[in-house]
Amino acid sequence: MAKPSARWVIAHVSWNNRTLAGVCQAGLVNNLNDGLTWVILPVLLVEHGVSVAGVGMVKALYPLVWAAGMIGTGHLSDRLGRKPPVVAGMLIQAAGFAVIAAGISHGLGAPLAGSALLGAGTALVYPTLLAAISDATQPTWRADALGVYRFWRDSGYAIGALVGGITAAAFSLDAAIVVAAVLTAISGLAAGALMTETLTSGSTLLPQP
Fold first, then answer.
1. Number of domains in the chain
2. Cβ 34 vs Cβ 180: under 8 Å
3. Has residue 62 been placed in a domain?
4. Exposed, middle or buried: residue 200 (CB in 10 Å: 0-12, 13-18, 19+)?
């Protein structure tokens, strides 16, 4: 198959194909969460009286659960499909933010539990989104498609930092965490509405150039 133009790949991955658009928005919001937690969460924890050591524990638990969890979640997505882990992972991340927002005034327990939920949700989403992109593209333009996806996904870091900072400045640090929970839940529901399961259908059932 002839290699399509870069313009076609950008449009196809970003918005023309519902499944790939659903993957891109989920990747963006997933990394929005990551950027927001690095900017807002440590300051929020200190504001609520958590020690520097406690902040380190909360921030370390998130990537630890995420990294260790991906070993199992990648295998899970090869058995259950791509769509269920993506939707579940985004909703679990939203729950993690909600737990932090609800319990941060009552000690370290809620932030640790929320951090673990954020890590578990990210573990479900991170390898699965890459697999879904690979499922739904042809080898001749797969690297291009992954580049477009990575653009949307990694722009989430910057957008998360901006959203968190602006919300915190306009309202409060606690409000920034609530906004993150709402955006993440919406993203999970959007992924459920937009994505077609790619593990079984593969690229042959998706539009081609």
1. 1
2. no
3. yes
4. exposed
* Statement: residue 205 has pLDDT above 50: no
Q: Kindly report the CA angle at 36 between 198 and 61, in degrees rounded to 5?
A: 80
Asked if residue 133 lies in contact with residue 8, where contact means CB atoms within 8 angstroms, the answer is no
Range of the domain at 140: 31-195
Residues whose CB falls within 8 Å of the CB of residue 109, separated by 6 or more in sequence, listed in order: 103
- CA–CA gap between residue 105 and residue 178 (Å, rounded): 14
Which CATH number do you get for residue 135?
A: 1.20.1250.20
Q: Which residues of 140-166 are buried (b: 16+ CB within 10 A; e: fewer)?
A: ebbebbbebbeebbebbbebbbebbee
Indicate yes or no: pTM above 0.90. Answer: yes
Asked if the structure places residue 175 within a domain, the reply is yes
d(CA 202, CA 208): 12
Residue 209 falls within a domain, yes or no? no
Is 96 domain-assigned?
Answer: yes
Helix (H, G, I), strand (E, B) or coil at 49: coil
How far is it, in rounded angstroms, from Cα 151 to Cα 156? 9
| CB contact at 8 A, 128 and 114 | no
DSSP-based three-state secondary structure for 195 = coil
Give tens-digit pLDDT for 160-203: 999 999 999 999 999 999 999 999 999 999 999 999 999 975 54
Question: How does pLDDT run across 97-139, given as a tens digit for each residue?
Answer: 999 999 998 989 999 999 999 999 999 999 999 999 999 999 9
